[in-house]
Design goal:
heterodimer; A: mainly alpha; 434 Repressor (Amino-terminal Domain); 0% strand; B: alpha+beta; YaeB-like fold; two-stranded antiparallel sheet
């Protein structure tokens, strides 16, 4: 007969005591190593590579890749550089930082989104030139400001 | 097991019939004096599996049991001295068994008497758990992330 139960929560004072000996820094080191391994594996899978294919690309044995992905390794900057280079990502991506793309341009064209200014010129009315009275000139200018708070990139 | 169980994975162990401690506690007791640092590494790893990463396949050594029985060992580097056996069900559930010392030159548990005893025991528990899942005595929770049902009175407890 089924007993619809969840496992009871089990606390072991002995295990807790041992875990309490672990410093926050040690715990963070373990966390970082495991998260780094997870990130590398995710990026490898995103390229549809298995361990052997990744090993080929990076010039290592598959057993080395298994170690990298185990979350137990203290990977050096040189190894991380190799990994990032092979995976075609910035090294910061391996650490889960959001990749910020920098755009460099020599020239930025800014288009105003405010309505174009109208310049209204009127001439004084004269008897000879009534037709010219109230002359309205609309000058449609292209506005080129070096900096404007209202722009569309 | 608290505090290893967390948002990312549920961590269980087994109390054999007639005993008061889990297989995992017995394993820790047996090796804490000689391999304190390695035991603490295992505790840290289990904590992160439960609370941060989940039980990723790459954190385990596979094919430690029979094909399809989900028995594996927590990944240990060649230089490490002890090995912990477990039953892993995907990213969400790890059942900790016992383990033993990994003598130099021993590559498979069949090559060492102590490892054979521990691995065989975990394989037997895995078979029993899988049978009970098949029978519906133990089943997955609605979110498929933990085991529920009759979690006591295994035949070989």
């Amino acid at each position: 007969m089924n007993k619809s139960t969840k496992a009871r929560k089990y606390n072991s004072p002995k295990l807790q005591e041992l875990l309490d000996e672990v410093t926050p820094v040690e715990m963070e080191q373990t966390k970082n190593k495991m998260q780094l391994a997870a990130r590398i594996e995710d990026l490898m899978r995103a390229k549809s590579w298995n361990k052997s294919q990744f090993a080929d690309k990076v010039g290592k044995n598959p057993s080395e890749i298994t170690k990298w992905l185990s979350g137990t390794q203290n990977l050096t900057i040189d190894v991380l550089t190799e990994i990032a280079f092979t995976l075609e990502v910035e090294m910061s991506v391996l650490f889960g930082k959001k990749h910020v793309q920098s755009v460099y341009r020599r020239e930025i064209v800014v288009h105003s989104i405010v309505s174009q200014p109208q310049i209204v010129l009127t001439t004084p009315a004269t008897e000879e030139s009534n037709l010219l009275s109230n002359l309205l000139l609309c000058v449609n200018q292209k506005v080129q400001y070096p900096i404007t708070p209202l722009y569309q990139a | 097991m608290q505090p290893y169980t967390g948002s990312e994975a549920k961590v269980y162990s087994i109390i054999p019939k007639g005993e008061t401690e889990t297989l995992f506690e017995k394993f820790v007791d047996e090796y804490i004096t000689e391999f304190r640092s390695e035991i603490k590494d295992i505790l840290k790893t289990l904590y992160q599996i439960g609370n941060t990463t989940g039980a990723r396949s790459s954190y385990f050594k596979h094919f430690e049991g029979k094909p399809g029985d989900f028995v594996c060992a927590l990944y240990d580097l060649p230089g490490k001295s002890i090995r912990l056996y477990c039953i892993r069900f995907g990213m969400d559930v790890v059942i900790l068994g016992g383990g033993g010392e990994k003598p130099d030159g021993v590559r498979a548990w069949q090559d060492d008497e102590k490892l054979t005893k521990e691995a065989t025991q975990v394989i037997a528990f895995a078979e029993d758990i899988l049978k009970r899942i098949d029978d519906g005595d133990i089943y997955w929770s609605k979110d498929k992330k933990e085991l529920e049902g009759n979690l006591k009175n295994y035949d070989n407890e």
